[in-house]
Amino acid sequence: MIVRRLLLCVLVLANGCFLRSGFGQTIDPDQAKQIFGILPQVAENPQNPVTPEKVALGKSLYFERRLSKSSSISCNSCHDLTMAGADGLSTSLGYRWQLGPRNAPTVLNAALEFAQFWDGRAKDVEEQAKGPIVNPKEMAATKELVVQRLKSIPEYVEAFHKAFPGDKDPVSFDNVANAIAAFERTLLTPSRFDQYIAGNSGILTEQEKQGLNTFVSVGCTTCHNGVGVGGGSFQKFGVIHKPDWLKDLGRYEVTKNDADKYVFKVPSLRNVALTAPYFNDGSVWSLEEAVKTMAFAQLGRKLSDSEAKSIVTFLHTLSADPGLVVSPPILPASSLSTPKPMP
Amino acid sequence: MIVRRLLLCVLVLANGCFLRSGFGQTIDPDQAKQIFGILPQVAENPQNPVTPEKVALGKSLYFERRLSKSSSISCNSCHDLTMAGADGLSTSLGYRWQLGPRNAPTVLNAALEFAQFWDGRAKDVEEQAKGPIVNPKEMAATKELVVQRLKSIPEYVEAFHKAFPGDKDPVSFDNVANAIAAFERTLLTPSRFDQYIAGNSGILTEQEKQGLNTFVSVGCTTCHNGVGVGGGSFQKFGVIHKPDWLKDLGRYEVTKNDADKYVFKVPSLRNVALTAPYFNDGSVWSLEEAVKTMAFAQLGRKLSDSEAKSIVTFLHTLSADPGLVVSPPILPASSLSTPKPMP
């Protein structure tokens, strides 16, 4: 795994240097495959196998407002599947209209990333799914409340037994997260760029191919590589020029290690054209501006308008195509013993 | 129309008296059809014809948070299609976490009702759809903001042109409501009881048929008749015994007519078993308790536990079967000129 990643880095850097040297050749599908890899159909986790029963339950729970204290906020509230898995806000609204500190990243393809949250404080979507449910600024529930609500609804009890057949007490907070994560592991979105990687060279326009070249030659693939086009490493935001507005200490808040100040997980760029606003605080709405900011902050490059536009043209090829439509669940009714909403 | 309604009333009352007199005969499918009628496939409105283009646009707008000032609240926030078209709260949460004064009724089959809102202040779903969008306690937008947001998104401009082909300036607040209403006119939910009405006598269990008899013989069909099993008239809540807790003056707030104090639209009972809590303020969570309260308030009847349970058994046959699953839209991205969220 480490060897593969190192190899990839060398390839990426080699590609970058090669292209920066002015040859200007097109990144062909095979080279793209080397840099980015092939999108799987499901982001498997051997510790939490993706089964149809678990996915069905997880989908219900993903839309389940009763996982929140107020019974008004679900996973889908901030990671809306009709909005490419994000919410279009700079930072999200939680319990009693509290604004969160960071922009909600898209849930689409999130399961592919090597860590979760902007600061990587959760190792996978199983661990991530628990966070917002009990965060007092987000869904503001407690583990106990969640389990009590679900145990009070016979259809859920049955669904947990089906999804976790070996489990003596399947309706648990861990299994809430396991089921939601299993559902999220299916939320992968092939794009036209994946068809290109698969060898369909004609699927991209000349402008888009040029954009891919620019993306690679500028050096974006130093960080935005792998199957998520990002989501594979931590990086300091502002390794060359720290943006003035950047206050969030990022991963330092988790590790308290000075070297982690302003360090964030490199976000996946899949669906980036559909998921403005950008950056950890959602302060930038223009993708072109975001691209310029990153090139200057990370690579010390002042991109021309045409370079930035060219990269944006490529980034549009990373949008889900066709768009992901998830047939929504039918949620079961509460029973008389279901703990009431607490707005 | 009036003659038909009068005839229906006579029939209903006759049925009621007949059954109350102790014969205890089963309400057969033909009698049920006389009392309730046949659920249409679409709730048509000649003034706003239901077309595929309008429904497609209306579905997008129904899920569209950008119709709200904060860009965080959509129609679906309070009338959630995964929750039988309601939100499971006593009263709904709006802009800046404001609690509304009345319980959000289900959107399912709402288009069939003779008036909209608890107090009937809108005549149809076309008029209703505008209310929450500009209500400062709900979505808190303005007509101008809504139109500006939609006009800034090319996919919406195109969709409005397709949905309203005769219209020179189709992206209008009226057409937002017309499109949402056209979508809502398709949200009708056949139930097992509709199969019974259609002549499939075996679809209901003996207990359910007994429940139907109780429902009719107690006199519930005096108000809860017609294709919505309600939704066809205004009635004073507490015509015999006004509930102590009832403070809301209902339709009086619209008409300022003393006779309209505590008068509300009779709610449709379709999907009632899925849409707790009950009454104008969502104060009652038990359907059995709601049934008892209504029988005492409206008919002066103190129902026994077994009578109330029997009616509840019948009411469960009014739940959507199969449950309604609406394939969600894929919402277009904002453009740089889209007015930003204002949380």
UniProtKB/TrEMBL annotation, chains A, B:
<feature type="binding site" description="covalent">
    <location>
        <position position="220"/>
    </location>
    <ligand>
        <name>heme c 2</name>
    </ligand>
</feature>
<dbReference type="GO" id="GO:0046872">
    <property type="term" value="F:metal ion binding"/>
</dbReference>
<feature type="signal peptide">
    <location>
        <begin position="1"/>
        <end position="19"/>
    </location>
</feature>
<keyword id="KW-0575">Peroxidase</keyword>
<protein>
    <submittedName>
        <fullName>Cytochrome c551 peroxidase</fullName>
        <ecNumber>1.11.1.5</ecNumber>
    </submittedName>
</protein>
<keyword id="KW-0574">Periplasm</keyword>
<feature type="binding site" description="covalent">
    <location>
        <position position="223"/>
    </location>
    <ligand>
        <name>heme c 2</name>
    </ligand>
</feature>
<keyword id="KW-0479">Metal-binding</keyword>
<dbReference type="InterPro" id="IPR051395">
    <property type="entry name" value="Cytochrome_c_Peroxidase/MauG"/>
</dbReference>
<feature type="binding site" description="axial binding residue">
    <location>
        <position position="224"/>
    </location>
    <ligand>
        <name>heme c 2</name>
    </ligand>
</feature>
<feature type="domain" description="Cytochrome c">
    <location>
        <begin position="206"/>
        <end position="319"/>
    </location>
</feature>
<dbReference type="InterPro" id="IPR026259">
    <property type="entry name" value="MauG/Cytc_peroxidase"/>
</dbReference>
<dbReference type="GO" id="GO:0042597">
    <property type="term" value="C:periplasmic space"/>
</dbReference>
<feature type="binding site" description="covalent">
    <location>
        <position position="78"/>
    </location>
    <ligand>
        <name>heme c 1</name>
    </ligand>
</feature>
<dbReference type="InterPro" id="IPR009056">
    <property type="entry name" value="Cyt_c-like_dom"/>
</dbReference>
<keyword id="KW-0249">Electron transport</keyword>
<keyword id="KW-0408">Iron</keyword>
<keyword id="KW-0813">Transport</keyword>
<feature type="binding site" description="covalent">
    <location>
        <position position="75"/>
    </location>
    <ligand>
        <name>heme c 1</name>
    </ligand>
</feature>
<feature type="binding site" description="axial binding residue">
    <location>
        <position position="294"/>
    </location>
    <ligand>
        <name>heme c 2</name>
    </ligand>
</feature>
<dbReference type="Pfam" id="PF03150">
    <property type="entry name" value="CCP_MauG"/>
</dbReference>
<dbReference type="GO" id="GO:0009055">
    <property type="term" value="F:electron transfer activity"/>
</dbReference>
<keyword id="KW-0560">Oxidoreductase</keyword>
<dbReference type="GO" id="GO:0020037">
    <property type="term" value="F:heme binding"/>
</dbReference>
<feature type="binding site" description="axial binding residue">
    <location>
        <position position="79"/>
    </location>
    <ligand>
        <name>heme c 1</name>
    </ligand>
</feature>
<keyword id="KW-0732">Signal</keyword>
<dbReference type="GO" id="GO:0004130">
    <property type="term" value="F:cytochrome-c peroxidase activity"/>
</dbReference>
<feature type="domain" description="Cytochrome c">
    <location>
        <begin position="53"/>
        <end position="184"/>
    </location>
</feature>
<dbReference type="InterPro" id="IPR004852">
    <property type="entry name" value="Di-haem_cyt_c_peroxidsae"/>
</dbReference>
<keyword id="KW-0349">Heme</keyword>
<dbReference type="InterPro" id="IPR036909">
    <property type="entry name" value="Cyt_c-like_dom_sf"/>
</dbReference>
